[in-house]
Design brief:
Length: 391
């Protein structure tokens, strides 16, 4: 089944294009008019289908039952839930408010804010049952702001909100240019200086994002080209030394750099294997991969090795460009101390939407003496240092 949010985007663009596009020439004027009528009718029908429920989010549970309350009263109840951190409940009341009054600007605005708060919480177990959960939230949130701005085009607070959303939203929303236009409009308006300051900040982020888009295209085409190497050098972050005095020994410090930045934060996994390749423990895995598990595998080597045995205990927020340090306490996934010997530390990273990927590993020996191992290969994990600190 087509995603209704994507369909609605397509239909809007089709409808806009229809008004300006060149239509085939027909010798018979009646055929020309008939062609336009047929195309317009089809477009209108698809828009009506795609618009139905475009502000509804089924995963929020049961619809609020019909009550003798106005749309404005429903919004006030939603705000109370929002301020108490009950965002799904707020969403249900806002959806009901929109059902009651399709032109309630406040309802659309607060629905967008509600979606933002849920997205900000990050990935959780919901995506195991629906890997498109956050994608849908992003569409519902942006659609709500879009509708609010159309209803109140001179409201600069709404323009600023939609401009920020256009810049901050993932690439698949495709509203970066619209976000830039909104932010520029805020700057030219009589909005308060604080709003203009925020607009300038997000314009800076927007143009940086645009610039990064071109670099991503170059690296995706050939990561080993001279130009790509210059890009890696330019964005490679500085690093600092690990301080073992802050931790109890024995321990293994795993210090690595992620040397690239895509449209979305990458999926990354850090884990330990025995010398023969047997799984020992996951040290870290990014939120999406950790929660989605086998329903959508982005890190195939980690998934194959771990079989998701200990994923719930180590899933964390996604890491990105820069230095990352993790500590292994020499215990396996069941909490038992591992025996002395040789182990392998592996780091896997997958970028999206470029689909760039790298897997790096290096050995480390546990015993009476300290040990150190370094891997410097590739561009996406250009540096991996593993150090064993004995008691």
């Amino acid at each position: 089944m087509l995603n209704r949010y994507l369909v609605q985007d397509l239909m809007e663009k089709t409808h806009e294009t229809l008004c300006i596009c060149h239509v085939p020439s027909f010798s018979n004027p009646k055929m020309h008019k008939k062609y336009r009528r047929v195309v317009f009718s089809l477009t209108l029908a698809l828009i009506m289908i795609s618009t139905a429920g475009c502000f509804r989010f089924p995963e929020w549970g049961k619809k609020v039952q019909a009550e003798s309350q106005s749309s404005e009263e429903l919004v006030e109840r939603a705000k109370a839930h929002y301020k108490a951190g009950r965002y799904e409940e707020a969403g249900r009341f806002l959806q009901k408010a929109i059902d009651e009054e399709k032109r309630n600007v406040e309802a659309y605005k607060w629905l967008a804010l509600t979606c933002r708060e849920i997205i900000t919480r990050g990935y959780d177990a919901k995506i195991y049952g629906n890997t498109n959960y956050f994608r849908k939230l992003a569409y519902v949130g942006y659609r709500s702001l879009d509708r609010a701005v159309r209803l109140a085009p001179e409201d600069m607070e709404l323009r600023l909100m939609r401009g920020i959303a256009g810049v901050a939203m993932p690439f698949f929303i495709g509203k970066l240019d619209q976000g830039i236009d909104d932010l520029k409009r805020v700057l030219k308006s009589g909005a308060p200086d604080s709003a203009k300051t925020e607009a300038m900040y997000w314009l800076g982020k927007a143009y940086r994002k645009k610039g990064m888009h071109y670099w991503i295209k170059l690296v995706s085409k050939d990561p080993n080209s001279k130009t790509s190497k210059a890009i890696f050098e330019d964005i490679r972050p500085a690093s600092e030394r690990f301080d073992p005095s802050r931790y109890d020994r024995p321990l293994v410090a795993i210090d690595f750099l992620l040397g690239f930045q895509d449209e979305l934060e990458p999926q990354t996994a850090v884990w330990i294997e025995g010398r023969s390749g047997n799984f020992v423990k996951t040290i870290y895995v990014s939120g999406f991969s950790g929660h989605a598990k086998e329903t959508q595998v982005r890190l195939p080597k980690w998934a194959e090795s771990s079989e998701f045995l200990d994923v719930d205990a180590v899933t964390g927020a996604s890491i990105d460009l820069g230095q990352n340090i993790f500590v292994w306490d020499l215990k396996d996934y069941s909490g038992r101390k591992v025996p002395p010997g040789e182990y392998k530390v592996k780091v896997e990273v997958a970028y999206w939407p470029s689909k760039l990927y790298q897997l790096v590993e290096t050995p480390i020996r546990l015993g009476d003496k300290g040990d150190r191992s370094v891997a410097t290969e590739g561009h996406f994990i250009p540096y991996l240092e593993v150090v064993y600190f004995p008691e």
